[in-house]
Hints:
The protein is mostly helical. It has 21 helices and two strands. The protein has a domain at 360-429. The chain has helices at 2-19, 29-44, 48-61, 68-83, 87-108, 112-126, 133-147, 153-169, 175-190, 197-210, 215-229, 233-245, 252-264, 268-280, 284-297, 301-317, 321-334, 340-352, 362-379, 382-389, 395-400, and strands spanning 408-411, 417-420. The longest helix is centred in the first third of the chain and has 22 residues, at 87-108.
Amino acid sequence: MKKGLLLYLLITASGILNAQDNWIWPEDSTMAIRNIAYYTDRMRTKDYQGATEYLEWLLVNAPNINKSIYINGVKIYDFLANETNDKKLKQTYLKKKLSLYDQRLKIYGETKELLYRRLLTAYNVEKNNPEKHQLLNDQAIKVMSLYGNDVPENIFVISMDLIRRKSIQDKEKSPIEILHQYDQLLNKFDNNNQKSNKTYLILKKMMASAVSLDCELLNNWLSNKHEIQQQDTIWLKRAVSYGLNMQCQESSFFVEAADKMIEKSPSYSLARLLAIKYEKRNEFNKSEKYYLLSINLAPDNEKKFQALMSCARYYHRRSKWALSKSNIIAAKNLNSSNKETEALLGDLYFDGAKSCMKKISRVEDRAIYIAAHKHYKLSGKKNKMTLASQQFPSMNDIFSEGLNEGDVIKVGCWVNEEVKLKRRENLQN
């Protein structure tokens, strides 16, 4: 029986030894071989708990026998940690896994991959211990430096979470200091080869939970940095992102940064936003510039329709009736089924009527309201149809000019439409 077992161990150990180089045997090499065979056999049969007894003997009595005991040891304790639902036991297994990394690093030296894997485990074990936050952060910085511009994305998430946790712990740290740390982390992330929008959104969400900023604080910090970094496209994008996330679009830094950024990286949505901001500031030349730019930058017909309609409304507000109409017609040509264009034409004719009145013919002056009524009817705006009809010429006006209800006349000026004459209802004059 003993001979059979010994033969089995020797065969098993032989396979293991041939697969690994650089074995350093302890004085009791027979016991070492036996424990290697036992723990690897338990692993093969997925009895990971049973493997720990033999692995532990090797770790205590032959710690430098071969790095395979640390590689396999991590697999064993990782499996046990994942299998248990007992939180305390899970932490015990993870701590053991962490000690295996530490012992391997001490004996076999550092590699960036090993430090990275060790950091992931250390974070899971120690993230709830405030006394470990600085050490974890230092380790994360070291791993980032070793990976250069190929840092695994989850390291950024770990670093941001540590910033968040430290900000909760350190009540004296100012919001600006925390934001500065976040900004430095994003600088690294922006220059990293591995970066996804999903990770960026996670970082942004974590920052928002770490610091409570108002627009005044944000404005003071970003305005100073903007003076230095206004030519940096990445910085400009981030400054604009800060303004949008914090609802600080009225801050001076935001408009200035967005204005610079759109020169370097044209954007449909940003052009529309700047158009609105400059209009509110009564800087109409710039506002018009961005309304027109948004039309050119529209990525599809739906967005172009929206941009044309926004531009039309802008010209409407500025009483530039002909320009407003040309944008409405362009939008209508893009999407003739959208009745919004008809409603806007009705508003344009109704509000701009006085600009076309020559005060020579009451019928001609009021025919524009018939045109407005026609477009309101096409858009289904009954209330506005009523308002427009109240401005129609009276029957007396029509008769006195030698015309009849139903005659076709042309509304000139910037309207340039034909209408059928209609009289104002329920009025004698």
